[in-house]
Specification:
Elements lengths: L1 H25 L11 H6 L8 H20 L3 H8 L9 H9 L1 H19 L1 H4 L11 H20 L3 H21 L46 H6 L53 H23 L1 H7 L8 E6 L5 H19 L8 E6 L8 E3 L2 H9 L13 H11 L5 E6 L9 H11 L2 E7 L23 H10 L3 E4 L4 H4 L1 H5 L12 H6 L1 E4 L20 E4 L9 E6 L2 E6 L16 E4 L6
Parallel strand pairs: 1-2, 1-4, 4-5, 5-6, 8-10
Antiparallel strand pairs: 2-3, 7-11, 9-10
Helix pairs in contact: 3-4, 3-5, 3-6, 3-11, 3-12, 6-9, 8-9, 9-11, 11-12, 13-14, 15-16, 16-17
Length: 604
């Protein structure tokens, strides 16, 4: 009886696994282009297919390294970078982490996620205009150029997050053209420049009543495109069952097991999304289509660099970008020493950054003084920023509390993500009701807030110009402390006489690319070598654990053999590694399978 139960339980688990797999497969959109990311090709067991993620990441890495090489001031760095620009280099991904900086990978992730969303979100997944489907070629070209305009405007407005979102959409549609159209079947070996360049010659399109395909009754369809298309240089794309307009008789289908239109005349399909005949009737042309898609993506990125300039291009991807330096300054009369200390620290940081290879970053100054609303000054020019710092003056006073949280909120709103925010004040917050909103904004932008709080230890405050008549609460700075802890910063209490010494922490905290010890994912991500592909969907964990947050689980697929899994717990993160010490020839520095290979460790 017990054996029957065990057998039954085993069958149920197997059925559940297959049911889950089938459910996940049916979530895939039939009008999807190259599969969006690593996990989608794992899902369909098509490991050698090129994905949108891979094509996009490799293009951004390649062009960013080129731009950095051309703009860097250090000759030795120049020579090192040039060795890893070739996409054939197996170490290009690893070394790009060193030369491009940590913020670069967050920016790339923004683009890749936006690209993948085109296949995953209902508003775009079934719309043929976003995928060059259903012979909506003119509309798709117009949409491409709309994305291009949005990118340019966003970069020039320094709205880099918006620009990355539009770039992900553009790269997806651009790549889909080569896997969904008959461009490759026409024998074209170069990209179609007219897609983004109206002045380049355009190819004619097959009309609605022009047959384009003939029936194909096998999963692999060869020569099912009518020869007249190639002879006339007519462009066409496949129709799908999930989008409008419906497929007319004699037209090509997208094809694959998810596309029901493949059963209508003309049967079959022409997509080259994967190298599997289950999903792509023209799977044998997948590599050619992916190659042209990669070249087209790189060309678009180079054109973007030429349009907005190399500096703006590097800022778009946060290439070797020092954290934005944000000063929130209480300018009440008692703050003379603090303003002087902040001025000296800012000057020291600017001088230090000028001698380093990374970009100088952006600077934001938010002075606040009660009464009156806080204002801000934003600059990419260090010299201009210092002029604003020099113009700061400690004036007048009022009651002891100040509108500090309003100033911090203004600073966070107008500063880029992952900024370093330094608040100088000797007053408690008058606008404590903003605490939750400011905390949420700081966590959303992953910005660290550090408070330098000055208070004389003696009852005599002859310099204080504030007219507070009530005794000051010993807990008046508690909200500042809470905000600093939540954001990963610090709250430092000092006196006016020591503010110059204490302010040196401002300089120490702005080191670009500094690896913290909050999570061992930092070690895993930044000291790993990747072979033949990028990280399989790994996303880094930042900052301190937040109360109420769900547990993050990462499956790091090193290699799967008969050995049992080893479980290791990191700081608020669970990791699962697979050891294979019995594998012949296993070596810590030698890649033996696709995936992540830790260097200088006993893991294969």
């Amino acid at each position: 009886m017990s054996q029957d139960r065990r057998t039954c339980g085993r069958h149920q688990r197997q059925m559940s696994s297959w049911s889950l797999l089938l459910c996940l497969l049916f979530l895939v959109s039939p009008c999807m282009g190259f599969f969006p990311n690593f996990w989608s090709k794992v899902l369909i067991l098509s490991f050698d297919s090129y994905t949108h993620q891979y094509i996009t990441e490799q293009a951004i890495i390649k062009v960013s390294l080129e731009v950095l090489r051309d703009t860097t001031k250090q000759a030795d760095c120049d020579n090192n970078i040039s060795a890893y620009i070739s996409p054939e280099s197996t170490n290009s991904f690893f070394y790009s982490q060193i030369y491009l900086g940590r913020g670069f990978w967050r920016a790339v992730r923004d683009v890749v996620n936006s690209n993948a969303d085109m296949d995953l979100k209902s508003g775009t997944a079934a719309n043929p205009v976003y995928h060059f489907d259903s012979e909506r070629i003119d509309d798709s070209i117009a949409k491409l150029r709309e994305f291009w305009t949005q990118i340019i405007l966003s970069v020039r407005a320094k709205e880099y997050a918006s620009a990355r979102h539009s770039l992900g959409q553009l790269s997806h549609a651009l790549q889909d053209f080569y896997s969904h159209s008959n461009w490759v079947e026409m024998g074209k070996k170069s990209i179609y420049l007219h897609l983004l360049q109206p002045d380049e010659p355009a190819f004619p399109l097959a009309k609605e009543d022009t047959p384009t395909c003939k029936d194909c009754f096998t999963p692999t369809c060869r020569n099912n495109l009518l020869l007249s298309l190639k002879n006339s240089n007519l462009l066409t794309t496949g129709y799908t069952s999930s989008s409008f307009p419906f497929k007319p008789k004699g037209k090509c289908s997208h094809g694959g097991i998810f596309d029901k239109s493949r059963l209508l005349s003309a049967r079959g399909g022409i997509n080259k999304d994967t190298n599997s005949f289950f999903f792509s009737p023209h799977h044998y042309l997948h590599v050619e289509a992916a190659g042209l898609a990669a070249i087209a993506t790189q060309t678009a990125l180079r054109d973007l660099k030429d349009t907005v300039g190399p500096k703006a291009f590097l800022k778009l991807f946060s290439v070797r970008q020092a954290p934005a330096l944000v000063f929130v300054m209480d300018t009440t009369g008692s703050m003379f020493e603090e303003i002087t200390a902040a001025r000296l620290r800012a000057h020291s940081i600017i001088q230090s950054r000028a001698s380093r290879a990374e970009q100088p970053g952006t600077f934001l100054l938010v002075p606040f003084h009660d009464p009156g609303d806080p204002t801000f000054t934003f600059s990419d020019d260090p010299n201009q920023f210092m002029q604003h710092m020099e113009a700061l003056m400690a004036l007048g006073g009022g009651d002891e509390p100040e509108m500090c949280f309003s100033a911090i909120q203004l600073a966070l709103t107008h500063s880029p993500p992952e900024s370093e925010v330094f608040v100088f004040t000797d007053a408690s917050p008058k606008d404590a009701y903003l605490f939750d909103a400011v905390k949420a904004l700081a966590l959303e932008k992953r910005s660290k807030i550090t408070f330098l709080l000055t208070e004389e230890q003696t009852p005599k405050r002859s310099r204080r110009k504030r007219s507070s008549k009530k005794p000051l609460s010993p807990n008046r700075f508690s909200l500042y402390s809470s905000l600093s802890v939540a954001s990963g910063g610090m709250a430092v209490f000092t006196t006016n006489s020591d503010i110059h010494k204490v302010s040196t922490i401002v300089e120490d905290n702005t080191a670009v690319g500094k690896v913290n010890s909050d999570s061992s994912v930092d070690f895993l991500y930044y000291f790993a070598t990747v072979t033949n592909d990028t990280h399989p969907g790994l996303a880094r964990v930042e900052g301190s654990p937040v109360a109420g947050e769900a547990l993050f689980i990462y499956w790091v697929l090193m290699c799967i053999f008969k050995n049992s899994a080893t479980l290791m717990c990191g700081y608020h993160t669970l990791y699962i590694y697979f050891r294979c010490p019995s594998f012949p020839g296993a070596h810590s520095d030698r890649p033996i399978s696709k995936g992540v290979v830790l260097r200088d460790s006993a893991w294969c």
